[in-house]
Amino acid sequence: MGDRRAGTPFHSQQATLADSFLADLDDLSDNEEEVVDEDNAEAGHMEEDIDGDLADIETLNYDDLDSVSKLQNSQRYSDIMQKVEEALLKGSDESDQGMVLEDDPEYQLIVDCNSLSVDIENEIVIIHNFIRDKYRLKFPELESLVHHPIDYARVVKKIGNEMDLTLVDLEGLLPSAIIMVVSVTASTTSGKPLPEEVLQKTIDACDRALALDSAKKKVLDFVESRMGYIAPNLSAIVGSAVAAKLMGTAGGLSSLAKMPSCNVQLLGAKKKNLAGFSTATSQFRIGYIEQTEIFQTTPPPLKMRASRLLASKATLAARVDSIRGDPSGNTGRVLREEIRKKIEKWQEPPPAKQPKPLPVPDSEPKKKRGGRRLRKMKERYAVTDMRKLANRMQFGIPEESSLGDGLGEGYGMLGQAGSGKLRVSIGQNKLAAKVAKKFKEKQYGSSGATSGLTSSLAFTPVQVSYFFLMHRLSCFMLLLV
Question: Which residues neighbour 257 within 8 Å (Cβ) at sequence distance 6 or greater?
């Protein structure tokens, strides 16, 4: 509006606005081209990442085992295992107990062993996938019956190409219930014997998985032997063997210290194959904690609570050990004693219910209103016999009412034949009689003078009723006239 007042033509304003809009659209188109180029570049990177992931996934299906499993051929694996074997032969060295934990070469070896144990776990999973892919043609149902990779590798190596599992002794490799299920399933399987070349690759993969498992046990044995120095407080609570397994699975003492207790409780937990049996007594959400002495000695109803308590105290002890707060392990022993006392407290029976004592009787009389005034009040408001009959109804007999047809105030059993009384008279109570007597004496009784209206005539009740009847009759005759 200000431009129009200044004399600027309206059409020129429209032209300038259109030009500015076109310029903005040109800028937007340029930006869109840049955004499209960036999107294309990001999409290219994503495609490269996806191709890389797919390439990693496709390595699991290679026929060559060396292209799948590369850990045992690495220099790092060989160096760490050589150092572990030398350390196990040499034993624990107590001369370096006073130095800083991070500077101790043995601690560095333990950290390397922890990371190597995690790599061994991943390598075993890869080899397990390789074995499953190969042996699926022979016994496809076996992978759903045996979940653990090492057990699966042992069973595959034991069975081989044998079709009749009654000739294969699986005792000691699997529980008896699982052996029975595997035997029954193998009798109805749709698999066929493997070619000799594929079978040989599968057996080699099983040997490699078992070798990795034995190497992992050796690493854990070394870490367990050094737990008294590396994690004395954690070892005091859960034991050196369980402490080594927890550290190995978590990836080191510092990683275990940073982990919440709910995750520490699940370290080492694996799915259990119950083969159709009840899951009521199975512990699914407990890992290495169930191997501790405290957990094993706890009654079954309290084991879940005990596992949570052990995981929380183990996390506290790991945090103390990670900063070398108590190298003597006294904190771990104190926490272990707290756990033991708490579990004993849980097992105590509830206190017996004490009998409630009676109140002490009062020797003084209770302050209740009584006496002549209370008796008078009760007498004044007492329910009379007439009111009792009026409040009572007889079954099957309609009651009379003041207005008739059930309207008005009902009379109940007053005047009915089944009431048991011929007539109910309203007797004057003692208080009313006494008041009436006092009123009469006050009005007429004290002076002996007689008024002029008094008469000496005395009438009997029969004479009074006769006079009253004659009066009524005379009134009736007058009405007729």
Answer: 315, 318, 319, 321, 322
